[in-house]
Specification:
2 domains; two-stranded antiparallel ribbon; 8 helices
Amino acid sequence: MSANAYRNGKRTDPHGRRAEALAAGAKTFSTGLPCVNGHESPRYTATMLCVACKHETFKKVYTNDKDRWLGYAEKWRSKNKEHMREYSARYREQYPEQTKQAYKAYRQAHEYKHVAHERITFAKRRNRLPPWVTKDHIRQMEQVYQQAESLQKRSGVRMAVDHIVPFNGKTVCGLHVPWNLQVIGFSDNGSKHAKLTEAVYRPAVTGIMVSGKALPWNWSSR
């Protein structure tokens, strides 16, 4: 055994520990020594690569080509839906408190998504969500609610998402689709009721329709 096999009286021989890990079927093992980059991290049993080094490399690659990796992940999840359901169920059962805290943090950071999907569910019940609505349409609707939340935080004025063609009009009922949604002041939405009103402003960048009264130059403390 080499002179480096011991540190502070403890065995650190990586090959000896790797053999033990292989025999035990472990995916990783500890060498007790830092890697060439100074990480005192476990190594992968199959390759001897440092776990921390691999994570850092993947993080750099992922950051430089995020969209491509997200596409790979989406394809994998779509092909392994049953596996994902089983894994998620096991994780929730094993880590109930962590799951609860993660859900709470996500909900706080993405409140607009929760509101958007509540409205989508309500629209389905009222037969106002067409069967041909796609995931892209749903994402566009989420963006409208996100815009309303953003305007509300910036202005201090309560905002709402309104149906341009009324959801429950007397003569016509509008659909719950992206192009029928606009951001409007909450008080204006209340006074609008189920009526068709003014034209809307459509920003060239986002394509999200905003009522003229909800624009920054019309903000007030009402």
